[in-house]
Specification:
Elements (H helix, E strand, L loop, with lengths): L6 H4 L1 H15 L5 H15 L2 H13 L4 H6 L11 H14 L1 H4 L3 H8 L4 H23 L14
Helix pairs in contact: 2-9, 3-4, 3-6, 3-9, 6-8, 6-9
Length: 153
């Protein structure tokens, strides 16, 4: 796959604004592990290999376990996720599939049971921003690095 363009070069002001939203989210008080799970789950739904690669790397570098990453697509059936994470992942799926879900009140109520208003605001911005990044990366055909496989002993 050949990248179509570099968004950072073609639209530097727009890219800078997207990075500013990312920086604000990082300083929001939301747990870094939760932020990475949300980014990774939306990227899985959207099929963005570049973002999946990046957020798996980021999540594991921040202490996330391989097993939780493997089970993220099945978080509803796994006991490895907290109620707070479940509320965030549910909201992530609801907003990522908003044309189908329309962000139902029940999903928002689940969120309110675990997050305060400021956290909900930043979580919603986070979900919106990762969905935008996914669309940009998929549309412009950005590819993730390919690492040499480890040699089996």
């Amino acid at each position: 796959m050949t990248p179509r363009m570099n968004i950072f070069q073609a639209a530097p002001e727009g890219s800078k604004a997207m990075l500013a939203v990312e920086a604000a989210t990082e300083k929001s008080g939301l747990e870094h592990g939760l932020i990475e799970l949300v980014r990774l789950r939306a990227s899985q739904i959207n099929g963005c290999a570049y973002c999946i690669y990046m957020h798996v790397k980021d999540a594991t570098s921040k202490g996330e376990t391989d097993m939780r990453i493997h089970l993220l697509d099945a978080w509803r059936e796994s006991p490895l996720f907290t109620e707070r994470e479940r509320a965030a992942l549910n909201w992530t799926e609801s907003l990522t599939r908003i044309a189908k879900t329309h962000a139902p009140d029940a999903d928002y109520a689940m969120l309110q049971a675990q997050f305060n208003e400021t956290e909900i605001a930043y979580l919603t911005l986070l979900i919106g921003s990762i969905n935008l990044w996914n669309r940009v990366q998929v549309a412009l055909r950005w590819t993730h690095p390919v690492e040499a496989p480890a040699i089996a002993a």
